[in-house]
Write a structure and sequence with these properties.
By secondary structure, the chain is an alpha+beta fold. The protein contains 4 helices and 7 strands.
Length: 154
């Protein structure tokens, strides 16, 4: 997919993780690792479904600080090992019908991670940005960074 043709509907963030691509990929693709970092700080995550293949579905339920569950779910449409993951994603009631496009690039002992979210319309993208898109995902990527730095993955 050429993301430049839909640039007005995309929000993109980049992070360089101080971990080799093998570890970053494992953290994103193995349920036992996803449960340790997925979701904003202060939330625990239960990986309810994780069929990591093209056409496979995923569902993660986070417990909010008040104890209420908050689920996220989607279907994988493209997986290129240690390069790219593309999946639909829903985070009701806040976010519906977006596409997550994740690119992993080895840079020696580090990994450049590019995270793009494709929205249906430019207006929907703008509304998501105003709701705190970058803070929410930024917090999650901070948790992933901490997990990668403090955990020896298998």
């Amino acid at each position: 997919m050429d993301l430049s043709t839909i640039a007005d509907r995309i929000v993109t963030m980049q992070r360089t993780f101080n971990a080799p691509i093998d570890l970053v990929w494992e953290a994103w693709t193995q349920p036992e690792h996803i449960a340790q970092w997925w979701g904003p700080k202060g939330m625990n995550t239960n990986v309810e479904e994780h069929d990591f293949k093209e056409g496979g579905s995923w569902k993660y339920t986070m417990l909010m600080p008040d104890g209420k569950p908050f689920s996220a779910f989607g279907v994988y449409s493209e997986i290129v090992p240690k390069e790219r993951i593309v999946t639909s994603a829903n985070f009701p009631p806040m976010t519906h019908n977006v596409i997550l496009h994740m690119v992993f690039e080895a840079q020696g002992a580090q990994t450049l991670f590019t995270f793009s979210v494709i929205h249906d319309t430019p207006e929907y993208k703008d509304a998501q940005v105003k709701m705190g898109f970058e803070n929410g995902w930024g917090s999650q990527f901070d948790r992933l960074n901490d997990y990668l730095e403090n955990t020896a993955l298998s």
